[in-house]
Amino acid sequence: MEFEDEETAIAAVEQFDGHELGGRNLRINVAEDRPPRERNFRFNDAPRGAPPRPSRPKGSRRGSRGKKRSL
Q: Is 30 left (phi over 0), alpha (psi -120 to 50) or beta?
């Protein structure tokens, strides 16, 4: 939520932090900006000559689970 001033926001946090709603306690606090995350490049962003991504088998894992059980 956004408030007009900081005093109102602090009052709302104090009022509703720990308040019970639907059998559960609410945890209310003031939001803070997250630090920027490191960018993980995708396969298409990889530089030329980079080694290929490791491949994964496609499809469901049911077949591999069945094979494990039969060993």
A: beta
CA distances from 34 to 9, 17, 31, 37, 69 (A): 19, 21, 9, 8, 45
Strand partners for 24:
21
Global pTM value: 0.43
- Average the pLDDT over 49-71 and give the result: 63
Tokens 């945890």 locate to: 27
> What is the spatial distance between Cα 17 and Cα 40, in angstroms, rounded to a whole number?
36
How many whole angstroms from its chain centre is CA 60? Answer: 24
Burial of 28 per CB tally in 10 Å (0-12, 13-18, 19+):
middle
Give the chain's length: 71
Which residue, chain included where needed, has tokens 């408030």? 3
